[in-house]
């Protein structure tokens, strides 16, 4: 997959060179390019913003640099158009399912807004997706892009060594994952649940499912309405 990021703060995207995403890029599993939007400005101040029509506080990102940038980055070949993503708090909520959908694409372009956001005509002309990473307002689209790119990259084939660690994740089955444990078996008088050390794989799987169901009911009960529950699941939740 190719990923292009357009931003006025290219250094903000440096974490993409680290850890899982950085390793995936080093192994050519993802090809990431960050571009400074200001290279598509033509005045001495390299201006990207202007006052909002209709008045009000703050500034709005002007359409011309965005349009030039998107034309340059997407290369003008209409048969190989990227999917253009604009992070915005007013967008569609980002979910694991949305990450999986984006992971199927061959090319993503992220447009990181700042100030009061990007002129609406650019979004109308170019955006395939307007995505929110949560019900709060950040200062810019860079942190949101980091979140989306990491969630998408870890779903690309070969990026995570053990595929089960993805299929067992929270949301993979519509549930939150329960607590996980490693050595030592007793730490500060707290013992790892005995079942996890029993070697009985079926019993462990059932116990994990039960923990996931109970945690989901406690923290995100609305998720339970969206999945099919077995009779055994219902019995756990009945208590
Ligand atoms: N005036 C905008 C509004 O209320 O919808 C908020 C603009 S915000 C200060 C600046 C930029 O941060 C946005 O254009 C967007 O790129 C990004 N941003 C802020 N919160 C976000 C969120 N929850 N999800 C995705 N992007 C976000």
Automatic annotation (TrEMBL):
GO terms for cellular component: cytosol. It is an enzyme of class 2 (transferase). It catalyses: guanosine(37) in tRNA + S-adenosyl-L-methionine = N(1)-methylguanosine(37) in tRNA + S-adenosyl-L-homocysteine + H(+). S-adenosyl-L-methionine binds at residues 113, 133-138. GO terms for molecular function: tRNA (guanine(37)-N1)-methyltransferase activity. Its main location: cytoplasm. Residues 1-225 form the tRNA methyltransferase TRMD/TRM10-type domain. One of its GO terms (biological process) is tRNA N1-guanine methylation. Its EC number is 2.1.1.228. Keywords: Cytoplasm, Methyltransferase, S-adenosyl-L-methionine, Transferase, tRNA processing. It is found in: Cytoplasm. InterPro entries: Alpha/beta_knot_MTases, tRNA_m1G_MeTrfase_C_sf, tRNA_m1G_MeTrfase_TrmD, tRNA_m1G_MTases_N, tRNA_MeTrfase_TRMD/TRM10. Homodimer. Specifically methylates guanosine-37 in various tRNAs. Belongs to the RNA methyltransferase TrmD family. PANTHER family: TRNA (GUANINE-N(1)-)-METHYLTRANSFERASE (PTHR46417). HAMAP family: TrmD. This is tRNA (guanine-N(1)-)-methyltransferase. It comes from Parafrankia irregularis.
